[in-house]
Amino acid sequence: xxxxxxxxxxxxxxxxxIYKSPVQDTMPGGFEKFDMDDFTRKSRASTPGxxxxxxxxxxxxxxxxxxxxxxxxxxxxxxxLPFFYKTSKKFYASGFIKEKGQEFGDLTIDGKGIKIxxxxxxxxxxxxxKEIDEDKKFxxxxxxxxxxxxDLEGVINIRNGQNRDHLFAGFESGTSGNKVWxxxxxxxxxxxxxxxxxxxxxxxxxxxESKALSAD
Length: 216
Known about the structure:
This protein is α+β, with helices and mostly antiparallel strands and 216 residues long. It has helices spanning 8-19, 23-26, 36-45, 143-153, and strands spanning 55-57, 63-69, 72-78, 86-92, 97-104, 114-122, 128-133, 167-173, 179-186, 195-201, 207-213.
């Protein structure tokens, strides 16, 4: 058992600069519209099971995946390494924005990540109805401190993004106020399942459980 602590200097000079989600600074909270014409054109030019032109990378390495859903459209933007977050957007059938924000903990396409930062919700007329700061649900040991901890453990690297796509984190907040991180990191480029599992107190950073995953 051990307690992980983080200094204020390390938090300011390391975490925020390296992988803090910049949603508040770079993602406007205002109205936007899905480009249905471009989506339809690329869908028609795609080859099912082989080429999907609505799954592409931008010049700065961000992967964008656009899909039609049962009630509209969705778009996911997975940031280039070493960033540990993705932007998720949902749109109404009209193309008007429905909700948008950023996620952490599962960067796979359609993965159920943990909402972080500010999320924006709109009605069908495009009016902003509510804005929620998802960071308020975390304890003193939030996702930034979690990433620092995993980096110091050597299971990820926050400077180059190593194992980013093999990191899966869940966050629980019980009725009694207990906050807990459940984390699994799988070794990249290993055929069999190998890696590490952690259960960490979301307020103190105390490691409640930890074990290595082996192929045996």
